[in-house]
Design brief:
Elements (H helix, E strand, L loop, with lengths): L9 H7 L6 H14 L7 H12 L6 E7 L10 E2 L3 H10 L4 H10 L6 H8 L7 E4 L5 E2 L6 E6 H6 L1 H25 L4 E4 L7 H15 L3 E2 L2 H7 L9 H5 L11 E2 L9 E2 H16 L8 H13 L13 H18 L6 E4 L4 H19 L8 E4 L5 H9 L6 E4 L1 H4 L10 E7 L2 E2 L16 E7 L5 E8 L11 E5 L7 E3 L3 E4 L2 E5 L2 E2 L6 H14 L2 H4 L8 E5 H15 L9
Parallel strand pairs: 6-7, 6-12, 10-11, 11-12, 16-22
Antiparallel strand pairs: 1-5, 1-13, 2-4, 3-5, 3-20, 8-9, 13-14, 15-16, 15-19, 17-18, 17-22, 20-21
Amino acid sequence: MSQRSRHQSTWNQGLDNMAAPSGNTRGVMERSIRDRAPPLLTDLYQFTMAYAYWRAGRHQEPAVFELFFRDNPFGGGFSLFAGLHDCLLFLRSFHFTDEDVEFLRSVLPPATDPDFFKFLRGLDCSGVTLRSVPEGTVVFARVPLMEVAGPLAVVQLLETSLLCLVNYASLVCSNAARFRLAAGPSRRLLEMGLRRAQGPDGGLTASRYTHIGGFDLTSNVQAGFLFGIPVAGTMAHSYVTSFTSLEEVWPQTLVALNGDPDPVDFISLTKGWLSRVCELLRAEPGKIREGELAGFLSYAITYPQNFLPVIDSYSVGCSGLLNFCAVALALCELGYRPVGVRLDSGDLCRQSVDVRRVFRLCREHFSTSAFDSLIIVGTNNISEQSMDELNKMENEIDVVGVGTHLVTCTKQPSLGCVYKLVEVRGRPRMKISEDPKKSTVPGRKSVYRLVDAEGHPFLDLVCLAVESPPVAGVSLSCYPLGSDDSPASVTPAQVACLRQEVFIKGQVTHPLCSAAETRAKVQSSLQTVHPRHKRLHEPDSYTVALSKKLHHLVTETQKGSSNSSNFLLAN
């Protein structure tokens, strides 16, 4: 594996040159967010509520909303927070155009006060403050990830767009991290789900955030352009099956890499090698597909330094592998280094072992060292389960391509992030539901991650914003969510404030990170999490707890809500 990993090709050169997007593409990204998430990309009731606030004279009241999710996705023990980059660009560019306002006139009731539309035309996020967990951080259910504070009407209008930008990004990023955990640290992962994604924006978002979550490569060229993600690909079966005979190969010659200017008849050279390969493997020449060989020859002549065909268009053992070896040996004779093969059907593990065995036979028999570095790419409707099973079986697969199950998140189609009001005019607000899981935690808060002596996070503590932060080495009492409402005593070895101010008065106050930089943060954050919380199956639950004062506020608010004096028709 180590020798194959040094193969200089498209498959690793991109990883060695993971350039951030250029200044021009950063501008494209900002324009893209205005196109993808304009202020009208929201639910109608946001505007009807904003009008009601405005008409009542409440639109400027200071309010605070929180964004969080209620359950860790995929039955796992964690999630990754993603989408903050786009949220910041969205907030920075938030404003209504004349065209936007005219459309709103047409959909809101005719009796809507015309001055409300003047209000909307001048609206922006200059009064909004966003405190957030850093993008790429491992996060857990019920922890407030983002706090959005500002004038009531504005922060209400932001709800749907922010949820849209965070929900899928965090979900698919978390899905990618689980695939990475299932694959192990060394196997390369190729995201190839664009054609299966929910539309162009879903495909582009998936490519970006699966890379951040742990995938090495993407097939999506636009994602490579915008986000600096290494791009790779092989060929489709249609290319192979479009050929029927060697007469269709053109040109038929190839110049050797050593500088000899005389072109070599590449077809004749390959046919000679094919006879030797068939003799070595005791294969039947009559079962070899001429059209497949023609397709391989044509591609190899076009891309002699990047020859990686799919070899299962017909039969791997009877045709595809033999044709590949013949073309690859011919390339080696001319000084080129073929890259490898792709398997896309059948038992990938067994076939990869058979293919590697043939590569070793050719290397030994023909003294061709380039066959040591050939890679095997496996693609065949790979799921997290099949990836996990692949790791437990003998196989020789170097790169795994994943599409449908990755980008569509088939195990769980939505993360279920919510955006809830927690404070108005400095007063805590709480949603009290018949379903306890849907009740919210009132008040403006701070969030701290408590770390044990081994450097592993063991508890996220949610406190009121006015409370003093916990101190390392000092015992504290807290109330774990989902427990029997009894306090727990913990002593952290380290304490980290989980959220930071990233947007103040219309300005982004924290550096915007590239996909590569956020990807590095993900890996760093995941490494700190204890393995028991990262298990793909039956992980241990991570503890999220309320401080003593916040728990008291929740209890008192719940009691107050049941007091008859709060009801309009109470006697």
